[in-house]
Amino acid sequence: MTDYKAGLNRRYWEYQKSQFSNGNFFERPYAQDGRPPVFITSESWRNIIINLTASQQEIDKLLSLVPEKKKHKWFRSMNSSQALAQSIFGNLAINNSLQYLTEIKDDEGQDLFGKAQISSDNFEMEYEVDYLGEREPRPTSLDGYVSGDYRIAIECKFTEAEVGTCSRPRSKLESKHCNGTYSIQGARKERCSLTEIGVLYWRYAPRLFKWKNDSDLNPCPLNKTYQLARNILAVGVKPDRTVSFNNGHVLLIYDERNPAFQQGGNGLIAYTKTLTELQEPTMLRKCSWQRIVQHLREKNILSWLTENLALKYGL
Q1: What is this structure's pTM?
Q2: Which DSSP state fits 86?
Q3: What is the per-residue DSSP string for 203-218?
């Protein structure tokens, strides 16, 4: 992981010098301590790759896909997976080119977007799910979302060391803490501390996963699969709270250079565990950024974008 991030950082700083030499847009000049370039708050929008010939209307449309209040904590860093996703999916969306992604196969040879009809009209970024009873923690926010009869939740990763685990075992508060098992603990009446506060994950999980919710489980199967499982629930449960595993899937997009998504990495382990626990394994698919960018390059789609993705990220 250290070598992987160091290589990216060298590329980022070269990109910074070649593309932003005439502006003071960063928190610090060239950093020698291994940190990536980080934009100052007012210039964070520059972390998105934008066509130099784009009109102001097109730029505004691109930036509006991820409103300020939905930006991740580290959006200003060139390591941001959210900025990368907005650069790729956002530019495809505003240029009415998302349909080209349906030509791509996932890592296992399945259609990347399955039965979904994807277009600028039914694609959103940072789509908030409001039907899983989530108030604490915050509602599931999907990096990308394709609506319709067949729905897709897109989970975007880049330099992350894992996909995302449950925070409750790490909590210091007695009322929130979990020991990593699905069992009644302390003063709780429910086996899951999230169920205790009204979150509905475990109401629907047995319909989509090979998990039972009426007996103790050790370890809790939701712990290490948390982020992917939430996305599965987001597409498997409909807003009217009916459940189906035939009308959508989750797509995990990752950097194939990232050790976390190579053999033995925490990201790949979480993906594999989630996949094997599903009632319907086709509900979870994965594909690298490299595969997506290479397809765009071969089809000569937004060549200015793929050129900048190569310069900035090495994709």
Answers
A1: 0.96
A2: I
A3: HHHHHHBS--SSS-BS
**How remote is the C-alpha of 140 from its chain's centroid?**
11
Phi and psi at residue 285, to the nearest 5°: -135, 160
Task: Report the C-alpha gap between 69 and 86 in whole angstroms.
Answer: 15
**CA-CA distance, 139 to 192, in Å (whole number)?**
17
Pairing of strands 123-128, 141-146: antiparallel
Output the six-digit token pair for 49.
């790759």
Radius of gyration of the CA atoms of the chain, in A: 20
Among residues 77, 266, 258, which one has the least CA distance to residue 163? 266
- Contact (CB, 8 A) for 167 and 178: no
Under a CB-based contact definition with an 8 Å cutoff, are residues 38 and 20 in contact?
no
Q: What is the pLDDT of residues 223-281, one digit of tens each?
A: 999 999 999 999 999 999 999 999 999 999 999 999 999 999 999 999 999 999 999 99
Could you give the CA distance from residue 21 to residue 311 in angstroms, rounded to a whole number?
A: 15
With a cut of 90, say whether residue 30 has pLDDT above it: no
In sequence order, the 6+-apart residues with CB closer than 8 A to the CB of 309 are 49, 87, 88, 293, 315
For residue 308, is pLDDT > 90?
A: yes
Phi, psi angles (nearest 5°) of residue 252: -95, 125
* CA 8 to chain CA mean position, Å: 19
Peptide bond into 281 cis (omega under 30): no
Q: What are the tens digits of pLDDT across the range 137-171?
A: 578 899 999 999 999 999 999 999 999 999 999 99
Angstrom distance (rounded) from CA 250 to CA 252: 7
What are the φ and ψ backbone dihedral angles of 124, each rounded to 5 degrees?
-135, 155
